[in-house]
Amino acid sequence: MQNAENRGGADAAALRGSRILLVIAGGIAAYKCLDLIRRLRENGAHVRCILTRAGAEFVTPLSVETLAGQTVHTDTLALTAESEIAHIRLGQQADIVVVAPATADIMAKMAHGIADDLATSTLIAADKPTLLAPAMNTRMWQHPATARNRARLEADGVAVVGPNDGPLAEGESGPGRMAEVPEIVAAIADVLAARSGSLAGLRVLITSGPTYEPIDPVRFLGNRSSGKQGHAIAAACAEAGADVLLVSGPTAEAAPEGVETVRIETAEEMLAACEQGLPADVAICAAAVSDWRAAAPQDQKIKKPRRGEGQSDGAPTLELTENPDILATLSAPGPKRPRLVVGFAAETEDVEANAAAKLTAKGCDWILANRVAEGAVFGDDGNVIHLLTRAEGGGAPAVEQWPRMSKAEVAARLVQRIVEALSSDAETA
């Protein structure tokens, strides 16, 4: 890690706009967290705090709440404004969870999966990077149990900053003193920067929104897709460092910053843009592509028959033809097939069964399925995802059921799963 005093600009860039959940555990070092909150907010971070019962013996909820500018959380049964259980929601809404001070007790509970209060329940439920800043007596830090717990947590991917050597509260001196605030700020920035570059060097092709298939110059076949989910995925991939090509149908969504965007209207145009955008490491087909188009679109507006002119009162007959299958085309074996092809399945019934059938039929690697009955999902800001991954050897796909979350949170979790999958492939290659 670089010297924290010499890296202010880099830290500010990594912290700006980040969402940090700070867990303040019991220990005299808790007083440093007040300065930590202030420094993080000065760098543009949003800080929410959980104060344990022991932590509240050293700093008051009012002081934490005043500096963070957010309600401090202390009660396991507290509900958010959306009536979600707090320990699930808090972790979902953070980019990183920081525990400072991290006591021997809270490290032991984390290492063994114990969740008996809001802090430990949130730490077990969180699927975001976690950073610990240990603080305890030297003998506690050097105890074999603490060493085992630290090794277990680091093996689980938890980052640790400190502790430092120095004078301790008991009048002794040695390792166990919590890292200084600039060091913790730098460590948080390092974790966030590493996460933001997790797709660096990779090209990601994403489709989003509906397609509009013309019937005549003023009418079309289409659907209610808003493009919110596909655009959120494009933004998350760009934030993770990927080179992103977004092929978007008609939508009111603005093009995400740092993303190359190609605007199209029809399925044929979308396929052409996708093929031109290859090669890519990952393809994510989030667009709701119209399955059919008019076989012979009219050059002039189709007029409604006028009564009394000897014309039939019946509606015109519209002959349809099937559109190209973009997901199946990108999934087909060949030198240009992306390493990972992800499709979406918008279903009104039997969500997992229909998605499994689509996974097999299209030849893609993953399907993200959601229910769109009664107007759900299309245009909403939230989503409930069933992630189906193709099994080796043609067995039944594995299914992950994600809780309801915002479309931005779905995008972040999808990026995380892509990073894990590609890393696993690299290790086995």
Largest sheet: 8 strands, mixed
Can you tell me the CATH architecture of the largest domain? 3-Layer(aba) Sandwich
Strand order of the largest sheet: 12-11-8-13-16-17-19-20
Tell me the CATH superfamily of the largest domain.
CoaB-like
Estimate percent helicity: 25-40%
CATH topology of the largest domain: Rossmann fold
Percentage of β-strand residues: 15-25%
Number of domains: 2
Give me the number of helical elements.
Answer: 14
Instruction: Note the overall shape.
Output: elongated
Q: Give the total of beta strands.
A: 21
Q: What is this structure's SSE topology?
A:
Elements: H1 8-15, E1 19-24, H2 32-42, E2 46-51, H3 61-68, H4 86-92, E3 96-102, H5 104-111, H6 118-125, E4 130-134, H7 138-142, H8 144-155, E5 159-160, E6 164-167, E7 173-177, H9 181-196, E8 203-208, E9 213-216, E10 219-221, H10 228-239, E11 243-248, E12 260-263, H11 267-277, E13 282-285, E14 292-294, E15 320-322, H12 326-331, E16 340-347, H13 351-362, E17 366-371, E18 382-383, E19 386-389, E20 398-401, E21 405-406, H14 407-428
Parallel strand pairs: 1-2, 1-3, 3-4, 4-5, 8-11, 8-13, 11-12, 13-16, 16-17
Antiparallel strand pairs: 6-7, 9-10, 14-15, 17-19, 18-21, 19-20
Helix pairs in contact: 1-9, 2-3, 2-9, 4-6, 5-8, 10-14
In short:
By secondary structure, this protein is an alpha/beta fold. The chain contains 14 helices and 21 strands.
